[in-house]
Amino acid sequence: MHYRYREVEQVRKIAYDCDVLVIGGGIVGLSTAYAITRRAPGTHVMVLEKEPGPARHQTGRNSGVIHSGIYYRPGSLKARYAVRGAAELVKFCAEYDIAHAVTGKLIVATDRAELPRLHALVQRGRENGIPVRELGAAQIAEYEPQVRGLAAIHVGTTGICDYVGVARRLAAASGAEIRYGAQVVRVDRRPELGVAVETAGGAVVRARVLVNCAGLYCDEVARLTGDDPGMRIVPFRGEYYDLRRPGLVNGLVYPVPDPAFPFLGVHLTRGIDGSVHIGPNAVPALAREGYGWGVVRPGELGRTLAWPGAWQLARRHWRYGAGELRRSMSKGAFTEAVRRLLPAVTEADLGPAAAGVRAQAVLRDGTLVDDFLIREGARAVHVLNAPSPAATASLPIGREVARRVLGVLAGG
Question: Residue 3: what pLDDT?
Fold first, then answer.
């Protein structure tokens, strides 16, 4: 009893800098801050972001698509949060005058072997409550005159938006204290007290609860906290081209994806600014922020290669990986992949565009984590797998993390 009394007195003496400390200023971290302050007004939330501004990595380097949720296993977090999140995101963009459009998209089968998978997507879409229209070869031209295929489906709820604009608005609307240029280097967690986080500049922030939304570094932050995440982030670079003849494409055109992988294949996306992006292919990155082959960080690469799951993944899927590498090294091979959907395209039509890196969680046995992954530790909540469609699903993800965080706060 006496020991417990000393604990309580110690807690009272701590000068906390905030109630909740969020690490990561991407769209998931900012949505979490927004959700906490909406659900529990008066809660002091602070966000630490190592970059000089928000949304500098996965959020700001994707294709800008508001995903419908058609690809994801019914009942999964991805399916539920993407369907719900797409509708909420469109409403959020309209409310705050953020550039967006509900465009719909085509998923096109170009080979007979893809037809069963296309039909399976129709069924999955219906199970997820998504309106889907099936198209024959001739009907594809109603939407995309230059696209060729054996059959297609039209998904009407897909859209596009300015995700950086969404992230900035979430930051402003949350009322959270946001510190940019604040890279976390050390975490001292005391389950009976809270957490103290030190940044590269030597500043120390004390909080009652820590939220890990560090994206490409989420597993490392979990380990700094003292929790074993049970996975590692294996970074995959997505390489894009710009279409120099954007008039060839009206909207969004996708191939039929391989269900064994979380990647959707090389697709065509008309962005909110009218430009058309083609890609991405997916190749291993040599650094967590390896946006080109010339970016190599030996320490990060070494830690990736030391994870048994990375080798298991490579052994299991080397044929798929070889095809992705070929398209990375050869513009001609990349063009060949695009021509399956858009025969009129030539190598000269493709101009370089910025790449992105996907933070993909991989288990020890080489399994790709195929759903959002949120885990709790003492005084901590970790978002450990939130690649695409996390931007689409960011508002529901933020609410789920907020629910868990406020539960921890309520427990003392």
Answer: 39
Do the strands 184-190 and 18-23 form a parallel or antiparallel pair, or are they unpaired?
unpaired
Structure tokens at 50: 């190592």
Flag whether pLDDT at 297 surpasses 90: yes
Residue 233 has which token pair?
A: 């982030």
Q: Looking at residues 286-306, what average pLDDT do you find? A: 97
| Long-range contact pairs involving 10-15 (C-beta distance under 8 Å, separation at least 24) | 10/192, 10/193, 11/192, 11/193, 14/193, 14/194, 14/206, 15/206
* Cis-peptide into 116, omega within 30 deg: no
Contact 405, 212 (CB under 8 A): no
Say how many C-beta atoms besides its own lie within 10 A of residue 133's C-beta.
14
For CA atoms 311, 312, 314, 318, give the dihedral sign. Answer: positive
Q: Is the whole model's pTM more than 0.90, yes or no?
A: yes
Quick one: average pLDDT of 176-180? 98
Q: Which amino acid is at 297?
A: R
Q: Which residue has the tokens 């005058």?
A: 97
**pLDDT at position 7:** 43
Print burial letters for 4-33: b (CB count within 10 Å at least 16), e (below 16): eeeeeeeeeeeebbbbbbbbbbbbbbbbbb
